[in-house]
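Case study B.
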Amino acid sequence: MNHDFESAPEVATAGQLVLMVSADNKRFIIRLTPGAEFHTHKGRMFHDDIIGQPLGRVVVTHRGDRFVALQATLFDLIMSVQRGGTIMYPKDIAYALLKLGAGPGARVIEAGTGSGGLTTALATYVRPTGRVYSYEVRDDMQVRARKNLERIGLDEWVEFRVRDIVDGFEETHVDAVFLDVREPEDYLAQAWAALRWGGTFGSLVPTTNQVSEVLAGMQAAGFMDIEVAEIILRLYKTVPARLRPMDRLTPHTGYLLFGRKAMPLAAVGAAADGEEEPGDGGDEGEAR
Amino acid sequence: MNHDFESAPEVATAGQLVLMVSADNKRFIIRLTPGAEFHTHKGRMFHDDIIGQPLGRVVVTHRGDRFVALQATLFDLIMSVQRGGTIMYPKDIAYALLKLGAGPGARVIEAGTGSGGLTTALATYVRPTGRVYSYEVRDDMQVRARKNLERIGLDEWVEFRVRDIVDGFEETHVDAVFLDVREPEDYLAQAWAALRWGGTFGSLVPTTNQVSEVLAGMQAAGFMDIEVAEIILRLYKTVPARLRPMDRLTPHTGYLLFGRKAMPLAAVGAAADGEEEPGDGGDEGEAR
Amino acid sequence: MNHDFESAPEVATAGQLVLMVSADNKRFIIRLTPGAEFHTHKGRMFHDDIIGQPLGRVVVTHRGDRFVALQATLFDLIMSVQRGGTIMYPKDIAYALLKLGAGPGARVIEAGTGSGGLTTALATYVRPTGRVYSYEVRDDMQVRARKNLERIGLDEWVEFRVRDIVDGFEETHVDAVFLDVREPEDYLAQAWAALRWGGTFGSLVPTTNQVSEVLAGMQAAGFMDIEVAEIILRLYKTVPARLRPMDRLTPHTGYLLFGRKAMPLAAVGAAADGEEEPGDGGDEGEAR
Amino acid sequence: MNHDFESAPEVATAGQLVLMVSADNKRFIIRLTPGAEFHTHKGRMFHDDIIGQPLGRVVVTHRGDRFVALQATLFDLIMSVQRGGTIMYPKDIAYALLKLGAGPGARVIEAGTGSGGLTTALATYVRPTGRVYSYEVRDDMQVRARKNLERIGLDEWVEFRVRDIVDGFEETHVDAVFLDVREPEDYLAQAWAALRWGGTFGSLVPTTNQVSEVLAGMQAAGFMDIEVAEIILRLYKTVPARLRPMDRLTPHTGYLLFGRKAMPLAAVGAAADGEEEPGDGGDEGEAR
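Model:
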């Protein structure tokens, strides 16, 4: 899913990112480097045993444990950068990408950087001509995310900025702004100022109280085409003869809000009861 | 969200795709063309009234009705191509994109073409160097989808093929295959044959019986890292002081299955009870 | 499910409540009366054709349409009394009954009466020695509910009161109070005053804003063992070979709140972050 | 919620069942007995300190730890009997009670007894003139459940039977049968034979495959008015200013099936696509 694919060789090549999966399902992202070694709890192996071979092959460590090398998907990369830090979930990142319209050539602002999960997704899809501007108030936090994006080769599409966004964003006319910060309602004016006309805004908040606050702020700021959504992911046990949802469900992650910078359309304001807005009716509304 | 962004001008330009939203929330995608007129139930307006102006502005029809022009997001394009036909929902398309790893440069097969919703998303993200191979057994159906993708300028990244996939796919070594057809379990061997080693497979089915069948078929075919997921989208009324889920909920769309073409890792088979597989535990599992 | 069962004869008896189901699944509750006729859109039939016969038999109207007579469950009665009025859903009523502890001999207050759905459930289960005190500010509304309960023979366990509960309740030392009114947060002191020590309180509200308000009010009033719950009912199509959730999902009904009148247990206050409260952990918490 | 309430005294009386809740939210059900002591991890206290006092009072153990005594609800009793054993969840028990129509005077069969959770709910609501017939193939298991029901004083309404139900049930003309056993589809004929005409059937199964099997069996056996339902309980953190679903969600419990013993109504068979059946449409369908 990343530019390593652009050659799309049938065999793994030096410099390619691969996902290593152990028999007990531990997962690691490595960049294949001639002469390099890969060390894990299961022992070590040589990158040269993978380079030049088809992916999907089993590789055995010096201790005899088995790994398989797979192409890394965006999903895998998001997982790998987010180890340990505060995270944004793929189910939410995925839906946000479509709603924000973060595609090739887009210029997108995100705050905060967090552990870099959304940054990874945005950088992947704005390539090759777009740019992600990632703001974070905590320097140490961003250093970690920057390392992660360098490791997976996406840093060249990201400009990291350590800054308190209460002072606003450096960029203007951006296509999209996404706020994943403690009080998004405090930065709506800054987001509005940075957006191009017609551009998209998004935010993620954990509580219903914040949904109300951000929603009120968005309506006051003049955002139109507002949607409030919650994505619930239900995973099933992979046993064909005993199909059932997993016992341990995905935890609550948060509520997503989206809107667009535009001039008011009288009747759209009237639609604020939500029943006429796209999420609720019409074929668009149904097509979710 | 599309290549029109690559210039990212502050004003709307000839040739740009824009979303027109009426005061009663009807939505239309148009490509700005000098001299052209836009006709709707609300009357007509001139593209030249939009070209050269910032997006987000209100445009008034000769009948005095108001429209606002916005940049079209991937979400909007998916909605617009899917009018009327059988559709795949953005909530499902979004998650599938991440799981499949359909990014710049990727070569992806989909079957069937349907009304072109997934085709639109894949074509958007494999640009500029990737390719989507879209199979459909019904010629008429594909003609419609092809027109839709031409209209939004994504057809150059898609090769449409009218063919019964029981005879297999023309391509090999592709990065991903997605099956949204009546009996996916009948085409798993063909999908396996078309995939590169380490590549990703996905499918969407409406019933639990089919989940069991496709799941059994995937395990028999040798796919690893299998996940069965259901995405539930919950939309809320956009009234800050009376926040509540919408009365009309999103309908059931289907169950998603994903896997990868790889050689067997003994213990991964043992994980078939689903409790050890990525969806369920570990930080990856939790990060959804 | 009602006292008609106490004889539990194998044949339908005069005076028994039965559910009549038409071939096109229209449902009617009737009390079998010698000599009476039952008139519907499908034509008429004689009660005497049912009395003395086993239930479950098909009865044919003079127009030749088919009905089947079944024993009426509490579910059926709740449905029948709620035709047309504002309603409380069985999924919510059922959970509330268990949480409130509304069993034989209990004295329970509800406000408002609404169309009598919860009244029906409470009256059913407090029999034979308990009592339901049902408050409603709108006289006309209560007249309708009273008629419904008379029709199904449960009125003798209900005392209907037309009164604005801002003035408090007439009863004290009741075992449970349930508020399904516009602003429950305004009547928490009245509920507390009416409850016996150790008694249970419950409420239903449609919005998250109200959940926050009622929750804050309950904590201020001193209620302990507080739970906030949402019951989501998912119905499946009854086709064994194509099992899937129904397209039309159940609408959002509301959020349920429960608590008990007791003196404060220091640490339980500390548990206000919700993670230590019963709903969340411990074997009680898991046993939901 | 139980017959101890029938006097409904303002003070706790000898013989009454009470729920003891510790400051760290441990819960115990005890029957107040003059002269008795209550021992816990938090130290001991005397029943006589509770008898004659209002419930809701704080009681202090000899070690200085605090407990509060509350009236035990049906919910509490279900929790208490189910400690450790395989359980049926209150959310499912509650909905089943309404669908089965298990009210005063009803004669109900359940199999298996399990740890007695459903038995407790049924015994509570069939009182004073009804009866629960509880079948279990494992003697040891039932001994435990019987002890639990004796402890809470509900055993007199239950007849426990140790028997393999493949040989059928001893009772006939019962109002309801509920199967919570490994392969319910194997015992549908026995359930049909035990039910009175017009009576209700219910079952709980964990997997979708079993739903299909039991559903097919029910349709073959002639059950009408069939519903397949899943109850999802969503609990929220009890923090008014930060309202959000709990991180740890309720696990998947199972799917519920319901039907009635009746003669076939042609068109109801045709309704097997589920769209015309009660769960889906009509005011009944909506009233869930």
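The two ends of chain C are 24 Å apart (CA to CA). The remaining cases will be described in the next quarterly update.
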